[in-house]
Amino acid sequence: MIPGVPLPEELYRLDTSRVIGLTIDPDRLMMIRRQRMGRIGVSERTDYTDPSRLDEEMLAARKVFRSGGFSVINMTDRTIESGADEIIKRVGRISE
Fold first, then answer.
1. Residue 64 and residue 75: Cα distance in Å, rounded?
2. Could you tell me which of 49, 94, 48, 53 has the C-alpha nearest to residue 71?
3. Enclosing H/E stretch for 29
4. Packed helices 51-68 and 26-39: angle between N→C axes, nearest 10 degrees
5. Would you list the domain boundaries of the chain?
6. Max alpha carbon distance in the chain (Å)?
7. For 45-85, what is each residue's pLDDT tens digit?
8. For residue 5, what is the DSSP state?
9. pTM metric for this prediction
10. What's 21's DSSP letter?
11. Separation CA 43–CA 54 (nearest Å)
12. Handedness of CA 43, 47, 48, 50 (dihedral sign)
């Protein structure tokens, strides 16, 4: 999801059991974003690291997940592999 860019309508025509939203704790996401900006040498505050903007993004994502009827996985304390395993389990249960 990109702020200000509408999601494709096709998203809402998909089998909702195969669409999974990923979330993360806002504080953890902010830390990741600040580290990322530091690695590329950007030290000034941008929309990308603005806490109020982050809150808006998180709210928008929750609205999309809710309105689409999509299940959600919180990735805050998960590795990518753990998240992928959870997705495979959820989608696999539906396919069986």
1. 17
2. 94
3. helix 26-39
4. 120
5. 9-95
6. 50
7. 888 999 999 999 999 999 999 999 999 999 999 999 999 99
8. S
9. 0.82
10. E
11. 17
12. positive
The residues pairing with 72 across neighbouring beta strands, listed in sequence order, are 21
Side chain identity at 19, as an amino acid letter? V
Q: CA 83, CA 93: separation in Å to the nearest integer?
A: 15
Helix H or strand E encompassing 26: helix 26-39
**Hey, what are 18's tokens?**
């195969």
Q: Give tens-digit pLDDT for 14-41.
A: 999 899 999 999 999 999 999 999 999 9
Q: What's the Cα-to-Cα distance from 19 to each of 5, 12, 34, 42, 64, rounded to whole Å?
A: 19, 9, 29, 34, 11
DSSP state letters, 33-96: HHHHHHHTT--S--GGG-HHHHHHHHHHHHHHHHHHT-EEEE-TT--HHHHHHHHHHHHHHHH-
CB atoms within 10 A of CB 87: 15
